[in-house]
Amino acid sequence: MRVRDAFDELHRRWRAGEAVALATVVATWRSAPQPPGATMLVTADGTVTGSVSGGCVEADLYERARAVLGSGVPELVRYGVSDDDAVNVGLTCGGVLEVFVERIGPAGFPQLDTVAAARRAGTPSAVVTCVAADAGDQPGAVPVDPGGRLGRRLVLTGDRVLGSLGSERLDAAAAADALGLLVAGRSGTLRYGYDGQRRGSGVSLFVASYTTPPRMIVFGAIDFAAAVAHIGSFLGYRVTVCDARPVFATARRFPGADEVVVDWPHRYLQGQLDAGRVDGRTVVCVLTHDPKFDVPVLALALRHPMAYVGAMGSRRTHDERRKRLREAGVTPEQLARLASPIGLDLGGRTPEETAVSVAAQIVADRWRGSGRPLAELAGPIHHPG
């Protein structure tokens, strides 16, 4: 079962009335192996779903999760190479991560069904959880949780705010700031005073944002497109394949795509832009090899902020395409965003190898990677988001 299936398993167990332990990465530093929001689920029968570190600390976390599942008392644990037992738990990669471990069941998280429904409907939602609480900014305060804030939740979905963190002021501040993270499609930690003071300290909240997946739009219903669609789906994109030729643009030829559309590429993309279904996370791959298809759609894509715009073709095709795009009014700054010929130099030849090359370039662009062998580099392996 893949990591992204952890929520589905959590919801399935919740609907069955079971309590489970959920470990969530809430903060990372340096070369941590997983980003904030990564989760690992541990059930009463010992089943494990998901991962928080790619295997580094799972064995230790498994035991902690079992203990939390039994006691019901949540725990915030930090792993890092500076810890005395870092090698023992396996975190030797150079990073530091904080993980919040909690027990979740129907009684303690009644809003989970609402979150699941929002995810199915494609409605952005966020779960705000108190992962650390003391009264550090209060007169005479001691580092305890007198208000029982630890583990309390606030849920944002649509125009509704459900639950409470224990204070109206804290709820209002957290809801406003969590909405900002949700709009940006980010998960992260917020810190406040115990009663919502924005410059205070004492309460740490983790915002888990659930947004619609980013889109990959592949233009050109060729064999390379089938491989690109498959690897795009593997990377978590919602994949659309579009081609104006109905004999080639069929669902049977593209089982890895979420949808196959018969339309002229530029007309389809304009419609998606007008409908607000394309954003700064969208990836566009133009594999058509035909100027009457690729020049209009590339000119349109390059005029809008997207995560990646690539086009397949030989260097001769690339030079001719750049000339046609300039004639179509594409500026030098816009043209500089075009990844063409598409992909990194891996030496591959088959459609599958080419798809790996394209995916590697998309990932490198996303995380500002160099595309060079790690053995030739020094410093952190993982780039900041």
UniProtKB/TrEMBL annotation:
Residues 216-362 form the XdhC Rossmann domain. Residues 14-80 form the XdhC- CoxI domain. It comes from the Bacteria. Gene3D superfamilies: NAD(P)-binding Rossmann-like Domain. PANTHER family: ALDEHYDE OXIDOREDUCTASE MOLYBDENUM COFACTOR ASSEMBLY PROTEIN, MOLYBDENUM COFACTOR INSERTION CHAPERONE PAOD. This is Xanthine dehydrogenase accessory factor. It comes from Micromonospora avicenniae. The lineage of its organism: Bacteria, Bacillati, Actinomycetota, Actinomycetes, Micromonosporales.
